[in-house]
Amino acid sequence: MASEIREITQRFERIGAHSHIRGLGLDENLRAKEVADGLVGQKKAREAAGVIVKLIKAGKMAGRGILIAGPPGSGKTAIAVAISKELGKDIPFVQVSASEFYSAEMKKTEALIQSMRRAIGVRIKERRIVLEGEVTALDYNMVPNPYNPTQRIPESASLTLATKDEKRTFSVSGRLAIQFLQQGIEVGDVIMIDKESGRVAIIGKSEKATKKYDLGGVETVEIPSGSVEREREFTYVVTLNDLDEANARRGSIFSLFGSQTREIDNEVREAVDEQIKRWVEEGRAELIPGVLFIDETHLMDIELFAFMNRAMESEMAPIIILASNRGISRIRGTDIVSPHGIPVDLLDRLLIIITEPYKRDEIKKIIEIRAEESGIKLSEEAKEKLTQLGEENSMRYATQLLAPAFEYAKLRGSYEVEVEDIERASKVFVDVTQSSEYLREWEEKMIKE
Ligand SMILES: Nc1ncnc2c1ncn2[C@@H]1O[C@H](COP(=O)(O)OP(=O)(O)O)[C@@H](O)[C@H]1O
Ligand SMILES: [Mg+2]
Fold first, then answer.
1. Is the CB of 241 under 6 A from ligand 1?
2. Which of 35, 222, 228, 335 is the most exposed place for a label (fewest CB within 10 A)?
3. What's this model's pTM, rounded to 2 decimal places?
4. Are 66 and 54 in contact (CB under 8 A)?
5. Which CATH number fits domain 5-119+290-354: 3.40.50.300, 3.30.300.30, 3.40.190.10, 3.90.550.10?
6. What percent of the chain has pLDDT over 90?
7. Per-residue confidence at 272, pLDDT binned at 50, 70, 90?
8. Are residues 319 and 290 in contact, defined by beta-carbon separation less than 8 angstroms?
């Protein structure tokens, strides 16, 4: 029996800067190729990430986490994005910055648990009775609209559906008939009606109708065989957080609109967990643990770390990937100093991947890839200049100069970026170390006055 899959889980955030990344670029033996899938160098980290993808797919990472540690701009987020690409789109991947946990709208632990539950998918299977077949006759019984007599609306309709083996005629309500009109359903369409909810879906045009009228550009489908009335299995993918929100609203889980941000009672989450466990036992649902990537981990404080450590032990926890550019530093909210500012009991659970600063030729290659991805042409000298800026400042700074430099090139009436365009862009846009240096000087002056 065919099934229909509706995806709601994917929520990629802020990955514009990483759109060139398609995967980890490894061979069958999990060895990193020098340049592949949009990634350059950083081989050890990519190979480590490759093993982790294997472990995640085999379900052997439960209760564990990953820390990607390295200087700013060394590709920590890039590696995490590559991991998500390797996992495939069936596995939820949620990206947040630890700064997002602090808001006026909800407690920080609440924000964290919601993020964790957004990273767990639930594939729900549902059996429903549907009517399915080719529309061979459709007659509306039109009456004046009681609210606007100049309009005519269907009071009811008579619908004949045919499969290869059966033909049945139904008398349908005005409500359903209006849906037919709105969707433009006509003879020759193959449709499916959910018998209980009355939801109508057009599957396509029947082959017969397409041949007869020579319709171009419409999807042609085979006329179904068997009976018109049949049982169908549907598959929905939602996240635990979707279910929490729906249950908190006491609505149906299939009416998932709007994304309110608000706190959810723990009882609601417990009830959802109980229900999911029951569904899993009954074979009606399947859990798909995904990945929660938390950038800027140093912004998490001791309370968040403790909460997360506990939550990671639950059977309904996602795989956590943390990213940090701090060395030995203070754990926020304490006077305790520890590696990466992360408590040792959490560190014990983490597999650690290190990203190293890039070498000159790697920076150059990454700039080339980013330029190509953005459709920007660079002269050889311009490429050299950007590489130099990447080495002296940061790679992020260099890649960010691409777009404004291209604008300057266009102003000159050229579609190739030259050194002068890069220089002009680097004069107006400063690197973050320069801007913080400037503000520090400014502060000193203000204090003196
Ligand atoms: N090895 C790499 N190959 C290709 N592009 C990379 C690589 N490492 C980083 N980048 C790109 O360089 C930019 C900065 O890297 P990013 O992952 O944001 O660094 P970090 O998260 O460590 O601060 C991003 O646009 C990223 O996609
Ligand atoms: Mg990053």
1. no
2. 335
3. 0.74
4. no
5. 3.40.50.300
6. 57
7. very high
8. yes
